Amino acid sequence: MIFNKTVILDCYTDEPSGYGARPYLGTHQIHLAQALSYKNESFSYLTIDDLRFANGEKETENTNIRILNKTKNVANATDIINNAETIYIVMGCFVEYKYFSCVPPTINEVYELLKNSPAQKILFYVLGVDNNICDEYKTSNLAQIVDKVCIGNTYRFVLEDSSSDNFLIPNYDLLQKISDQPVDIIEQLNYPILAEIETGTGCNTPTCSYCIEAKRHIRPTYREPQAIVNQIKTLYNCGVRHFRLGRQPNFFHYQYNSIEKLQELLAGIREQCPDIETLHIDNVNMNSVVEPHGKDFVKLVVKYCTDGNVAPFGIESFDDDVRKSTRIYGKSDKIIKAIEIINEYGTEVGKNGFPKFLPGINLMHGLPGQTEKTHHINMAFLEDIYNKNLQTHRLFYRYMTPAEGTITINNDRDLQYYNRCKREIMQGFVMPMQKRVYPSGRVLKSFREVIVENGTSILRTLGTCSIKIMIENQKLEPYGTYDVQIEDSLEPKLLKGLIVKEK
Predict the structure, then answer these.
(1) Are strands 14-15 and 18-19 parallel, antiparallel or unpaired?
(2) Which of 100, 107, 201, 319 is the most exposed place for a label (fewest CB within 10 A)?
(3) pLDDT, tens digit, for every residue of 97-106?
(4) Is the dihedral of CA 17, 20, 21, 24 positive or negative?
(5) What single string gives the DSSP state of each residue in 313-382?
(6) Could you tell me the pTM of the whole model?
(7) Beta pairing partners, 45
(8) Any idea which architecture 443-502 has in CATH?
């Protein structure tokens, strides 16, 4: 058997403005594949799950999400690694974090799986800031076997002067040249994915002291609509039916608030890809929603995107003192208005049973300036949202973990206090809101992902911030299509239901 000299090893990526943990296939992985195709360079694609399985990780009656995302190459994974001359390691998570259907590897795990490979090893570290990489990596065994670290865009490294380490700034003229190149990753997969598509990069409000985007110093730059449409059509022709327009910190600033450009982009996608199943967006700055163009952007998203779409708001805190201390742009009084605007057009229930377009709320615990008062302010705003009969898709309440090079967190590391705040938010707002948005008796369609635990299946759709639903005492197969009737709301982001249709 002849093996390709080049290997892409996907260790999954997660960054504030881009996602590549399953079921997502990230922009970095897609662009790397297209750059190699542009050079007529064949490659084998492996996930970290392939190597785990090849090295003895076992499948069990319950779903082992450490080896769920194996490719068609899994049987030859060891030989592929041993015969490779170049291994591109795409990695963005250096902490062990459990996602719904995958577990990104630790630094030490990647080292153990690659330490005996004679190949040149190039690490694409997508969370880098300028030329910095986290101290954990610098002192790790992995650093001893990696030949080169690239910060930023994979396609630039492959197609430009690879002597540089820093490719943070995009080159969209170059990306456009390769946007119609095949993505040979797709034919090597055993399962459907949600393709993350880069529409732009750089933040239009780069002041937040905790955010890695502010430290990258990349001015807002956007791809032309036709270039994005061409790339999506290429993936569509390869069989991909699920897409998210992501990577940028604020989708509502696309092409500097151009309604015409957004119309061209979304209408072009639906025209060229008529059987698309998922078309969602990513991050939205609530300040852009309340600007004059905001309502027109909402209308276009509702018209052209698919049901279950979410605009995640990086609110982080409703406390204006905290917002000021961390340089978060905009005062909290705009948040309610932004939620109202999206609700005006997005709450209609679509054919799949999901609201067409809702806001999501992100809050952080541990920001500088946070006091006991902060929690009371957060609760008061959430109560106001609920009492106004508004709808939100979900709420994330996370403990602040700063990226390398950003501010330190609040010195108050009282985990017990964090858990109390989170519990009160979940019980007082999230659960009542979840029952409002997903009432008992409604049928939700097109669940694909399946995780089995002790004979019970937990399902999720392929989409942004997807809701999960539990089917008791049924072991379902992954990547079928299931329609489910809601019975109850069990806990945040988890419903209980019954299968009403299986395709």
Answers:
(1) antiparallel
(2) 100
(3) 679 999 999 9
(4) positive
(5) EEEE-S-HHHHHHTT-SS-THHHHHHHHHHHHHH-SB-TTSSBSEEEEEEEEES-TT--HHHHHHHHHHH
(6) 0.94
(7) 8
(8) Beta Barrel (2.40)
